[in-house]
Amino acid sequence: MKEQFNIWDLERINVKLNIKFFERVNDEIFMKYRTKKIAYDDLFYNSKYPWATFKNVLKESTMKNYFIPLDIIIKICENLGIPKEILQENVISYKTAKGINYIEKPILPIIITPVFHMLLAHHMGDGTVINPKNGRLPYFGYRQFDKFYRVNYIRKIESIFGKINFKEDYFEESTRPYCPPSISTTFFKYYNVTISDFLSKSCRIPENIMSSDSDSLLAVLIAFIIDEGHVDSTQITVVLKNKELVKDLKLICDKLGYSSKITYRDNDFYRDYGYLNILRLGMKMLYKDYIILNKKYPVIDLGLKGEKIKDSFKIYNRLIIRVKGNQNIIYGILKKEQLSVNQLANRLNMTRQGVRFHIHKLLNSNKIKLIDKSKDNWIYGV
Predict the structure, then answer these.
(1) Residues 294, 226 share a domain
(2) What is the pLDDT of residues 93-147, one digit of tens each?
(3) Would the CA dihedral through 222, 226, 228, 234 be positive or negative?
């Protein structure tokens, strides 16, 4: 499997080059052909590029102000005996032909790392594939309402490809940042997937991820926890309307040695859903491995959900979880406001099971009552 991409592996790319290198190319054309017209007749006669385009591409003013087709420069360099690797070293920015957002200070060649795999997982979890008209290349969007995770998504892309020069810093406010077509295509190529492979009800983890190293597997699992996971005091739960994808994530847990199980619900509304439950022992191992991975790749950051996992360990380090005094505290709080089990657990730094234990006691003694069960988290009060 190809573990890196060079600039010439990408599709429909236009570039800007280092001016000194560009001057070298022009000088060598003059030394070999004496005129640009002779060079054009030798290299591009009867091609899709007319003489006027070739002539303009080799103007310094064009290079300074516009992006030029990569395939023209590659063919010229091949003819002049300039290695493609030298050309690549002198690419200062690139974008898709007719595209707007471009990559500046590009990281070339593009190296496949656990962060690359994590990005694919984000595109499967909370991602969308935009397939524009007029023959333009497809590209990814990422729906994320949390600003930390949204901005960090861009940082992950930039850690692999280089700085994205967006037309505007819209992703600071927009809930759907985009991955430009020039680099989105690398995911389709590397994993040998198509647009249809990203349908939420049928997508699967590609085989070249499932057979990769433990860092990559963990990065993918963390992406799904960020996008589709819920953390409480006893476990991490990832919920997907795709049972086969849930099985893939369970297999990743098995490969990494994380205690987990899959559960389903019987009611009609949730019958297509699968629930991956990473149990407490598995959660402890996952968090320990995550801390090591985060040091290697700081952009792999669980953010608030990482803090919730860490806080859950504090709860279990308490000597007493279900003491009678907590029942009085819960009763006192519910006399003032109406809350769910989860809200009480977070406020009191208790497990949900511990809070539920006291709630049942208070219900049986008729001190409190169920106020609202129309939502997933039932509300209790006096």
Answers:
(1) yes
(2) 999 998 888 999 999 999 999 999 999 999 999 888 988 887 789 999 999 989 8
(3) positive
**Cross-strand pairs, 129:** 140
d(CA 351, CA 366): 23
Cα separation values, 38 from 48, 51, 57, 63, Å: 17, 10, 15, 21
Q: 243-256 vs 280-296: helix axis angle to the nearest 10?
A: 80
Confirm whether 99 is domain-assigned: no
Could you give the number of structural domains in the chain?
A: 4
Tokens of 68: 């030029």
CA–CA separation, 85 and 4 (whole Å): 13
Residue with tokens 């009867």: 46
In a domain, 262, yes or no: yes
Helix (H) or strand (E) holding 158: helix 147-161
Residue with tokens 């320990």: 288
Say how far apart CA 59 and CA 52 lie, in whole Å: 11
The tokens describing 267, both together, are 């009611």
